[in-house]
Amino acid sequence: MSILSDSEEALLARARAIGAEFVCEPESVAKGVREYLRLMDKGLSEPGQAMTMIPTYVTAVPNGTEKGVYLAVDLGGTNFRVCSIDLHGDSKFTLTQAKTPIPKELMTGNSKDLFSFLAKQVAYFIEKHHSQTIDAATPTNFLKLGFTFSFPVDQVALNKGHLLRWTKGFDIPDAVGKDVCELLQKEIDALGLPVRVVALVNDTVGTLMARSYASPGKSGTLLGAIFGTGTNGAYVEKLSRIPKLKKMSEESGTKFDHSSGVMVINTEWGAFDNAMKVLPDTPYDRALDKNSVNPGMQMFEKRVSGMFLGEILRNAIVALMDHGLFKSAHGTSIDENGPLFTAWSIDTSALSTIQADYTSEYTLTKQLLEQQLGVSAATTGDAMAIKTLVYGIGKRSARLSAIPIAATALATGAYENYKKAKADAVPGQEVEKIDIGVDGSVVEYYPGFERYLREALRDIQPLVPGAAGLEDAIRIGIAKDGSGVGAALIALVA
Ligand code: BGC
């Protein structure tokens, strides 16, 4: 006998129906991989594509023997971090860091206010941790700073790049087209700090470098990926597979070292399939897009990353309120001016908490509803219905995340090489897996994220040519604080 009332059963049935709209079937993931492979080639051939495939001019990944002290700053989607990194040369490092949330009003104001705020945080940090450097400052004695800037930039040199567009809710029109290193250096100089911005790095490139420095294997990491506020990946590509590079580097006059035969490419996969040929779409996704600062852009990111999952959930909850959610006779009440009625007010961490709630009465979910979402006295049926939505949204995000990972391993030949090495190995010899470094709140804290992602990798094995056995060949490791350490590693090269 069910312990739920008839009305609760009806509510749950409705929640399951909404949850089913988020199901991402194997064929849908496989279609995604095929389309990703197509857009990858297009982006490597022609400049100006939505999935931009940006050449970074980084032509080598570290091997763990690098040494020195460097400064790094990281403007992500939510926080600004300043750190100094002491690389010890044995795959280890010490990191000192300070983190500040970026004030919301600076995300949509003007560039001067944002960059002078950033420069001030650098000043506080070096006053606190590197005061001797300031005292000893001479025209030749300055700290080298790597700038991790987690937005799409047309990189023309290691320390020069023009902002292409904002993402993740930022909208500061006067900065678009400007060199973001120069914007930061100007404000640093205005404060008289002995600091030079020597490298501009996307967070994914930093993650790739950091993972490659620290990863267990002897060979380098193939891909660095962020699944956090936003999502994106950077990987090691053969120069011969980047037809647009010759023209682009001639136009910008950028020289680079060809000897390794490879270059790190910042894919900007958040913009994968903006045309919506293969990505799943629901009324809740459409409502989110319509309400965003960049409708029609970052369509993959809007289905995968942390900034958006909470808002998809909010839209689905609102839809479920027409079908009995929070309508029990037990005096459930909703704050009509509260988070459920305010766009962008549900944090992804809420989804992680609900997903991880295995208490029999859904106590954690009820608490969260009460404390963060303005719903008091929700019933167990309400909480179960909400968990059903969360499950659908979170699992879809993880399964979609398998698309760029599979496509990158296939397109670069990394998986072919792995298979060859395996065939050539003597019995008992271990073959090194394809290494992938990841960072970001979603991959780190969303329960089951890697498991669902791996399930999707297995699902596509029979559906995508050359993918049989792929999942087993992939090693995924967290590159904690990757963007800071990675920026330091690139500053070192600079
Ligand atoms: C940005 C990328 C960044 C990613 C992860 C996206 O919105 O376009 O440049 O790497 O977020 O932070």
UniProtKB/TrEMBL annotation:
Its EC number is 2.7.1.-. GO terms for molecular function: ATP binding; D-glucose binding; fructokinase activity; glucokinase activity. It is an enzyme of class 2 (transferase). Keywords: ATP-binding, Glycolysis, Kinase, Nucleotide-binding, Transferase. Pfam families: Hexokinase_1 (PF00349), Hexokinase_2 (PF03727). Residues 17-213 form the Hexokinase N-terminal domain. The keyword Nucleotide-binding applies. One of its GO terms (cellular component) is mitochondrion. Pathway: Carbohydrate degradation; glycolysis; D-glyceraldehyde 3-phosphate and glycerone phosphate from D-glucose: step 1/4. Belongs to the hexokinase family. The gene is GLK1. It comes from Orbilia brochopaga. Residues 223-493 form the Hexokinase C-terminal domain. This is Phosphotransferase. GO terms for biological process: glucose metabolic process; glycolytic process; intracellular glucose homeostasis. SUPFAM superfamilies: Actin-like ATPase domain.
